[in-house]
Amino acid sequence: MSSSKYEPTISDLSKPYEQNVIGFGGIVKFAIGLFLLIVITFILMKLLSNVLADTFNDSKVSNNPMAMTDRERLPPEPRLQTAPGFGVESQHGRMNFELGAPQAEYRELKHQWDEQREHGLTDPKTGAVTSLPIEEGIKRVLEANVKAKSGEEAENFAERSRMFISDASSGRRATAKRR
Fold first, then answer.
1. Dihedral sign, CA of 92, 93, 96, 97?
2. 175: helix, coil or strand?
3. b/e map of 36-57 (b: 16 or more CB within 10 Å)?
4. pLDDT, tens digit, for every residue of 150-173?
5. What are the extents of the domains in the chain?
6. Is 120 helix (H, G, I), strand (E, B) or coil?
7. By C-alpha distance, which of 71, 79, 134, 132 is closest to 106?
8. Can you list the residues of the chain whose pLDDT is less than 50?
9. Whole-Å CA distances, 79 to 71, 73, 76, 97, 98
C-alpha cells in the first residue's frame, strides 16, 4: 500500500491554478463526425426532394375521374381583376375582362340580371322556365287562387315557426319565441 493518503492525479497541486489540458484529437473527431452528418443529411434531403417532385409530377397526369380541372380550381365569379380568368359567363359565351375597366364585370353582370328580371330565364337544354319576370310571377300566383291553410294544424305550425333555440335550453329544443 502506498504511504500517501491521496491518489495521484494529473493536477499539479503545487501550482495555484489547474492546468488546462485540451484533447485536440477529440475536437478533430467531433468536427469530422459533424461534417459527415451534415453531408449525409444533405444527400438524404436531396433524395427525398427528388422523390417528392417525381410523385408530384406523376400525380398531375392522374386518371382520377374526380380530379378537378384548372378551371374548376378557380374561385367562383366574380374574382379579382388580377386573378387569371377574370371574366363572366354569359349566353353569348365567356366575356374576358382582364384588360377592361374595373367596373366592366359589374356592368355586364347587372345587364344580365336586368335582362333576367325583365324576360325571365329558360334552361337551354330542356327549355324549362327557371325564372320568371316578377310581374308575370305575381300574375301567375294570383291566377292560381292559392288558399291559405286554416285550422288547428295551421295555428300550430305558425306557433312552432316563431320558436327558436335559446341558451337556456342548452341547444336541446326550441323554447324561446320571436316577438
1. positive
2. strand
3. eeeeeeeeeeeeeeeeeeeeee
4. 888 888 888 888 877 777 766 677
5. 86-144, 148-179
6. coil
7. 79
8. none
9. 13, 13, 7, 11, 10
